[in-house]
Amino acid sequence: MLFQVGGQGTRPTFFEMAAAQQLPASLRAALTYSIGVLALRRPFLHKVLDHEDEFFSLLMLVLETHSLRTTDASFSESLYGLRRRTVKIRVKKEDVRPNSGDGIQHSGLEKHQRILSVVFLVVLPYFKSKLYSIYNKEREARLQASLWGNGDETVEDAEYFSGGEASLVSRETTIRARLMKKIQKILFVCYPWLHASNEGMSFAYQLLYLLDATGFYSLGLHALGIHVCRATGQELMDTTSRISKIRSNERERLHGPPWLKALQGALLSCGYTMLDYAQTGLIAAVFIFKMMEWWYQSAEERMSAPTVYPPPPPPPAPKVAKEGIPLPPDRTICLLCSQKRANPSVVTISGFVFCYACIFKYLSQYNRCPVTLMPANVDQIRRLFHDM
C-alpha cells in the first residue's frame, strides 16, 4: 500500500474509486430512463426532461450536502464505505519516533472543504454539461450553415435597419443575439482545449493513482488537500449516532409558537425519512435499470443474431418425358448434337446442359425443353463457365 493511516482506514483500490466515480452517471441514466417511461402516460413530466441537467444537479446537491455533512464522504463514496480525510503533512525530524508513520496525518473535513467538495461534485459537472450542450448546438449550427447556408443574417439586418419604435426593440434583441453568438463562438473554440486538458489531467491522476505514485485520485481532491480512505469499523458504527446528534440539534434550534414548532418538526421528519430512504431507493433504481438494460440488450441481440438453419434439401431431379430425348451415359455430351459440349449453357427450367448454339436454335423453334418437354424460351438460357 502507498500509505497506512493509523485508526483512519487504508487507501482504497483504483477500481473502488473508479466505481464510486461512475455511480452518479449510472444514477442519472436510471432516473432519465424512469422519467422517460413515466412521461409516456403523464406528458407534464416532459418538462423535467427538458431541464434534465438542473433537475439532476438539484437532486445531487441535496444528496451530496447531506452525505458530506453526516458521513464526511460523497454519496457514492459512502456506499462503498469510503471517507474523505484532510491531509496534513508533517515535516520529518531526526528525533521523530520510528512508529510515527510516513508523515501523513488525516483529520475530519472542515466546513470550507465540504462546501468546495459540493462545488467539485455538483456545480462544476453542471457547468461542464452546459458547456458541452452549447458547443454541440454551435457545431450543429455550423454544419447546417455549411450545408444549407445561413439565412438568418438577412432577416437580422432587415430588422436592424428598420425604423419606428419596433426597430429599437429589434436592435436590442439583435445586439443581444450577436453578443450571444460571439460568446458561443468563443466557447466553440475554447471548449475542445478545455475538455482535452480536463480529460488529460484526469487520466494522468488516475494513472499515477493506479501506479501508487500519488494518493490523490483526481485534481479536485488534490486541490482540496483531501485523501479518500476506507472507513474503519468504529467510524461506520459512529455514523448513526452522529446523524442522530445532528438532527436533535436541529430540532432544538426550532423557534416560534408550539404549532409552528410542530409543523417544522413534521417537515424535518419527512425530510429525514426521504434522505434515509433515498440511498436505498436510488441504488435499487440503478440495479433495476441495469437489469432492464441487460434484458433488452440481450433480447435485441437474440433478435438480430442470424439463425443458423440446416441447408435445404436439393429439389427433385426433373423427370424425362417419354417423347423427350433420352439421356446419354456421358454427361459431357450435348443431347442435341451428340458431340462434346461447346460453350455449355443450361436451361434454368429443367437444369440440363447443352451447347449454346444447339439449345438456342431448339428453343427458338419449339419453345420447350428437349428432355422434359417443359415450356421454355431463350431468356431462360444461362451460360456456364465451369462444365462438369
TrEMBL record:
Membrane-topology descriptor: Multi-pass membrane protein
UniProt main location, coarse: membrane
Domain RING-type: 334-371
Record-linked SUPFAM superfamilies: RING/U-box
UniProt keyword list: Membrane, Metal-binding, Peroxisome, Protein transport, Transmembrane, Transmembrane helix, Transport, Ubl conjugation pathway, Zinc, Zinc-finger
Organism of derivation: Populus trichocarpa (Western balsam poplar)
GO cellular component, as recorded: peroxisomal importomer complex; peroxisomal membrane
InterPro entries xref list: PEX12 (IPR017375), Pex_N (IPR006845), Znf_RING (IPR001841), Znf_RING/FYVE/PHD (IPR013083)
Localization per record: Peroxisome membrane
Pfam families per the UniProt record, alphabetical: Pex2_Pex12, zf-C3HC4_2
Superkingdom of origin: Eukaryota
Pathway: Protein modification; protein ubiquitination
Chain's role: Component of a retrotranslocation channel required for peroxisome organization by mediating export of the PEX5 receptor from peroxisomes to the cytosol, thereby promoting PEX5 recycling. The retrotranslocation channel is composed of PEX2, PEX10 and PEX12; each subunit contributing transmembrane segments that coassemble into an open channel that specifically allows the passage of PEX5 through the peroxisomal membrane. PEX12 also regulates PEX5 recycling by activating the E3 ubiquitin-protein ligase activity of PEX10.
Residue ranges of every copy of the Pex N-terminal domain listed in the record: 21-298
UniProt similarity note: Belongs to the pex2/pex10/pex12 family.
Molecular function in Gene Ontology: ubiquitin-protein transferase activity; zinc ion binding
Listed name of the protein: Peroxisome biogenesis protein 12
CDD domains: mRING_PEX12 (cd16451)
GO biological process, one term: protein monoubiquitination
